[in-house]
Amino acid sequence: MLTQKNILIFSDFKNDDFFSGKLKTIALEYRTQKEGITFKDKNTLLITDEKAHGEGGNLYELKIN
């Protein structure tokens, strides 16, 4: 899950009950409006943000453990 300030990664949940599993929170450094997130592979996320007021409009790659 993606918020403006954090990435929330749910794991080890049952069926579609995400809150029954583990939660890992990753704080984001950039405070732009995030628009999309996907896994590139099991250790890499791709994140996009919206361009506004001359900032943003980027694609970020984030390595996770």
Automatic annotation (TrEMBL):
This is Uncharacterized protein. It comes from Polaribacter ponticola.
